[in-house]
Automatic annotation (TrEMBL):
<feature type="domain" description="Methyltransferase type 11">
    <location>
        <begin position="60"/>
        <end position="153"/>
    </location>
</feature>
<keyword id="KW-0489">Methyltransferase</keyword>
<protein>
    <submittedName>
        <fullName>Class I SAM-dependent methyltransferase</fullName>
    </submittedName>
</protein>
<dbReference type="InterPro" id="IPR029063">
    <property type="entry name" value="SAM-dependent_MTases_sf"/>
</dbReference>
<dbReference type="GO" id="GO:0032259">
    <property type="term" value="P:methylation"/>
</dbReference>
<dbReference type="GO" id="GO:0010420">
    <property type="term" value="F:polyprenyldihydroxybenzoate methyltransferase activity"/>
</dbReference>
<dbReference type="InterPro" id="IPR013216">
    <property type="entry name" value="Methyltransf_11"/>
</dbReference>
<keyword id="KW-0808">Transferase</keyword>
<dbReference type="Pfam" id="PF08241">
    <property type="entry name" value="Methyltransf_11"/>
</dbReference>
């Protein structure tokens, strides 16, 4: 794969297409993203540290990929982590880092293999986006996070975003399922090359 893989990944139109791409991309994924200046995981980790004590456990890393986004938190002492991803080769890569208590193949947007209120906090970095995971994937993340727990997720904030993503987030706010505690300003998450992707990171309390 080359830097074009990053650009092309934002053109996937279905979860199955994204899965096939990530299965083939796993061994080059981090190198390609780093070449594109990918900084979402580090900004995400900074936000998580501000709102989530390192003693919080258990934590779900939803769409963990190769573990890139959790690695900075692991270095800061976060433990008791379960990672899920739709791509087994990405999970195999993450396994070699020793970051997670367990890694499970599961697809965001489908029913997750966890009990209600299973986690004290859930993290979802760079995944709930067109062609990767649908907007309603947030519903299962709310379900598996305990009441009063913290859900931190990123959403795109650029012309490539589809309106149903912020609309579904706002619906969860209006229903009282989530209470937004904080959100970042929009920032360039892939500042080198194309596409010019921007994100915000949202921190929410799970209410109901």
């Amino acid at each position: 794969m080359t830097g074009a893989a990053v650009r092309d990944s934002y053109g996937d139109t279905s979860t199955s297409a994204a899965k096939a791409r990530y299965d083939a991309w796993a061994n080059h994924y981090e190198a390609d993203l780093m070449a594109a200046g990918y900084r979402l995981p580090w900004i995400f980790a900074t936000v998580a540290c501000a709102f989530l004590p390192s003693a919080t456990t258990p934590i779900l890393d939803a769409g963990c990929g190769t573990g890139m986004q959790f690695e900075p938190l692991h270095l800061l002492g976060y433990r008791g982590i379960t990672g899920i991803d739709m791509s087994q080769p990405m999970l195999d890569f993450a396994q070699g880092k020793g970051l997670y208590d367990q890694l499970i193949q599961a697809t965001l947007g489908e029913a997750l293999p966890f009990a209600t209120d299973a986690f004290a906090a859930t993290l979802c970095c760079g995944v709930i986006t067109p062609g990767h995971a649908p907007a309603h994937a947030l519903d299962e993340l709310v379900r598996v996070t305990k009441r009063g727990g913290i859900l931190i997720f990123s959403l795109r904030d650029d012309f490539g975003q589809l309106p149903d993503y912020p609309a579904h987030r706002d619906q969860l706010y209006q229903k009282g399922s989530l209470r937004e505690i904080f959100k970042t300003e929009a920032f360039a998450s892939l500042p080198i090359g194309e596409p010019k992707v921007r994100h915000r990171v949202h921190v929410c309390e799970v209410v109901a």
